[in-house]
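Input for the complex:
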Amino acid sequence: MANGTIAEHAKSFYEEGTSKKTGLLGWFFSTDHKRIGIMYLAALSTFFIIGVILALFMRLELIAPGETLMDAQTYNTIFTLHGVIMIFLFIVPGIPAIFGNFFLPLMLGAKDVSFPRLNLLSFWIYIVGAILVVISLFVPGGPIDTGWTFYIPYSVRTGTNVSLAIFAAFVLGFSSILTGLNFITTVHRLKAPGMGFFKMPLFVWSTYATAWIQVLATPVIGITILLVIMERAFGIGIFDPSLGGDPILYQHLFWIYSHPAVYIMILPAMGIVSEIIPTFARRTIFGYNAIALSSLAIAFVGYLVWAHHMFTSGMSDTARIVFSFLTFIVALPSGVKVFNWVATMYKGSIDPQPPFLWVMAFIVLFSIGGLTGLVLGSLATDIHLHDTYFVVAHFHYVMFGGTGTIFFAGLYYWFPKMFGKLYHTKLANIGVALFFVAFNLLYFPKFIMGYQGMPRRYYDYLPEFADLQLVSTIGSWLMAIALIIVFGNLIRSLRTGRKATSNPWGGVTLEWHTTSPPPLENFETDIVVTHDPYDFSQLEDMKNE
Amino acid sequence: MSNNHEIVVPTETHGHVHRDDVGARMGMWLFLFTELLLFGGMFLIYGVYRFQYSEEFHFAAMELNTGIGTLNTIVLLTSSLTVALSISALQKKNKFLSVVFLSLTIVFALAFMVNKFFEWSAKFSHGIYPGSEDLINKSNGEVVFFGLYYVMTGIHGLHIVIGVILLSFILVFLIRDKITPDNFVKLENAGLYWHLVDLIWIFLFPLFYLIQ
Ligand code: HEM
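Predicted:
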């Protein structure tokens, strides 16, 4: 794709920074998109692990009926914290912040993003938001206990530190907006010569679509959060029913953001899938245009379905039918993607390396999550399943089984490029397999329990659920082991792994045309794009580079 | 957006600074979209409650001081004019005039805030503020009206304050020749922001002061 040569002795971005500062400061003040990406990786992984540890305590509480470990109030704060951390600190910034930062400029053949200093600022804002969440745990009043949805009127009435915690969400939203704005401009302005919109890799397409949602949806949660804070501080009456406000209006505004946010979570993951499948099937992607445009279609339709979270909140039947119908439409562009991925693999010469196995796990888990989403999207069944464990299982299948799995897929795919090291393949395969088994053990019982009527957000349950809850808790332990293997393998490889070549998997998008890890300005020579993104005929030429 | 930068300009990074004015403007426009959506959320809420409590809104709106509102509208519209004039002056390479117009913009902005201060204090002294005894005793619709009034004009006022800070920095840049007739995208972007703040007021003014 590119005609450039790579000098063997080039300094990598680890050895050469953007400023004179060295050591940790050289990172914390670096405007290099690659360093920022890696800092996000460290921060997000930390919060992911904290979230998991909280969840393990929840599962331990649920191992048997009655109070085993914590009282109801503690359980309330823990599931809220788990939700807030996983959503606002891990999965929403997630893939764009880590891989978008690291790979968007590389895949476009650019030296950096459009606004490198703004990029660093968004990272700092993210850290400030994270610190605010942590502070809200320790100041008097106690940790927030409203659930991650902060529903009014409870969030106005409770004495816990709601204001500080949701202000943190506001700050994190700011970071998300600035990142989105930066990526949109980068895609428009910094494509290497020869790269048109329809020669961009699909990960770039999906990050681009995501960036638009970040920019257009996040302000709505911003203002909603501000209004809740002011409601608590001054009693302005906009949401408080005792003053004439309408709590349902809060739910509308909340979901006008938070549903598109679901697509902020999943679209970049779908982009990574579209990168990994062609590389390991050695075949150009099937239906490039369809996949690229379906990202935009999902971004658009995703904007119009928010009220399917509120089928039981009190809306007119017409509204409910319309929203239910629109919800089903989202399945179409998603289906387009899945079929194109499968078609890409058809007659390919598949090389089942770990990243590819993660993608396979994704396709199964995400399909289960997506299909159960349709069960929740249709009115009659949702009335029965609303606010049960069925919902908990559904969103873990899509968020954790979907985006979470692809977070690992991306990590295993790009690890050699980011760190210049190879990991242990067999251990990686064991990690995926155990993850897959543990995942289903952990969450599938929740579908059944939800169907039988187990409500979400309870620390206690009726004895008839005891067996399935026990299975689920055992699953959570297996999951912990799987995650230790998955992370441990990578951390170990950082020190002891073999050196990676510049193209260990035989990928052809631009990031594989430079050294592992790349130099400060990404490429030794200026890039000129001559091939389509998934044109594997260039692989022979690349060997000679 | 103009097309006179067809060549892809590399980013301003790593030592040597590259310029991409089109990119900078694009980034600003995107930011303005987010501002529009932020206020859009509030306008949506206003719409819902206007529909629900049309009578109470009618009574409550009569208590607002249309005189001060009109005055502030004129002040803000003029400030939008002066910031635009400041940009054209700089384009015509007249730095002095540009500095004068920009300073005038800041003065108008401060005048707006002073007016706002008197308007709000008058309301406070009549006991109309969120959570006050007098307000709680009024009907629900009126509580919501004044809640919205304080929130929306308050957040708008916050934007004015931010604008003043922003424009002051730009003024310093201009005086110190960091902004010049052939590199003034910062001034342009600050101007865009200022127009947006103005534009939002143009909607706030009739919604609260005029339609009674
Ligand atoms: C080892 C991994 C995990 C375990 C064991 C786990 C377990 C749980 C449990 C037991 C609940 C509470 C159910 C209830 O009582 O209603 C829960 C809620 C939740 N989880 Fe997880 N989870 C894990 C990972 C994740 C991940 C990766 C995400 C997101 C990316 C996530 C997002 C959420 C959310 C948003 C809630 C809802 C919180 C609320 O109700 O406000 N979880 N999880």
